[in-house]
Amino acid sequence: MRCRVWGILLLVPMLLAGCMEQTGGVGAALSGSGAKTKEERQLEAEARSLNQVTKNIIVKNTVEGAVIGAAAGCGIALLLGGDGGDCAKGAAAGGVIGGVGGNAVGRQAAQKKVELVQRDKVLANLRGVSQRLNGVETRLNRVLNSQNAELRSLRRQVNAQQVSKSEYDARVRAINSNRQTVKNELQKSENNIVKTRNEIRVAQQKGQSGLVSLDKAAASNQSRLARNRQKLRLIQ
After folding, report:
1. What is the pLDDT of residues 92-117, one digit of tens each?
2. Among 103, 125, 80, which residue's Cα sits nearest to residue 208?
3. Dihedral of CA 81/86/87/93: which sign?
4. Which of 27, 29, 172, 194 has the fewest Cβ atoms nearer than 10 Å?
5. Count of other CB atoms within 10 angstroms of residue 190
6. What CA–CA distance (Å, rounded) separates 204 from 116?
């Protein structure tokens, strides 16, 4: 008889644990309430990865950035199809090219069909950003919906005194930390796209044509990044 009683007592905690696991009771709500979920951490990782991708597509003009000093003058002369003599002349004029002659160099490069902006490569990269942003956007919406539902549930449990206010506050801090981290990464990506668009404009001003589609693709990504960033409102 005594053995049977002990057996029943041992089963009670197991049965209660199973019940709470199935119903998502107080124990489940409190479990790790002050920590970020796996989905939240994954969203942060994807946002950081997106930032890195947008950083890598910032346009580096072929002529821009190599227009100061003798070596720059030589490099530009060769770039435009000159020989050793032109290289020497370019070296002597290297210090001037970066200033007054900048637009002229750009026009000459365009005439020689030298791309200041590698159009096809940048367009492919911008498409890659758009695809990566699709994944971030999908996960972001899923995380936000989950967080909002969880907060509604936790508020009800706090009112019913099933969850303490300190546990609720800890979870709010974790959610706010997650949202702020993702928001910061999206802002960095947006800034990178803005820099890319500025580089495209510089190339257009220097005589390169056919970049309208690039600017439109970059503008679309910039707009999407801003919209998703605005979704990340902190819990007050």
Report:
1. 444 444 444 555 655 665 555 566 78
2. 103
3. negative
4. 27
5. 20
6. 9
